[in-house]
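Reviewers of the previous submission asked for a worked example of the structure-prediction workflow described in the proposal, so we include one complete record here. The input consisted solely of the amino acid sequence. No template or homolog information was supplied to the procedure at any stage.
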Amino acid sequence: MTARILVFAGSLRNGAFSIRTADAATRELALQGAEVTRISLGDYPLPIMDENLEKEHGVPENAVKLGRQIAAHDGFLIASPEYNSSIPPLLKNALDWVSRVRKDNGRPFKPYAGKVAALCSSSDGNFGGLRGLYHLRSVLMNCQVEIITPQCSVARASEAFDENGDFREERLRHSMENVVRTLIERALMLSARKDP
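From that input alone, the workflow returned the following structure tokens.
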């Protein structure tokens, strides 16, 4: 059985450290035998979460599409930057909109149901975006997503990657390997429980 894992970053900025971290995670997932889908939140543009807008027009189609991506995988990995010790608005908005999805083509639909996630962060500071993961973990847990304990935070990110996009430090490589291994194991365990 192969774990299907979705990977995305919480940033769209060219050269963003979180994008490079997501790329490193994608490579490691493939090395460990997962079936990986790498997406960009930029492919799912969404208005700012607004219940008036939702009441008038319903949940945006891009939120449903992103929800379908999440639902189609056994687990997902988010690589996030840290904004003022918290979650970047792009990522928070996307997660919030997906949490509003209740139906798909008239059928009940809960994208986050039974999902497990891994969290990574990156920043040029000494904490590696770690403080933002506390809030991200809380948001996802509120959406009933199971979060694995290991996480990978990339500090001094401008120096952390080599020319191939791999981590220079062995410590970071081991950290990502552990995150990926744990995510795959837990995703397969949860997936096996759902199969008859």
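The mean pLDDT is 95. We consider this example representative of the routine output the project will generate in years two and three.
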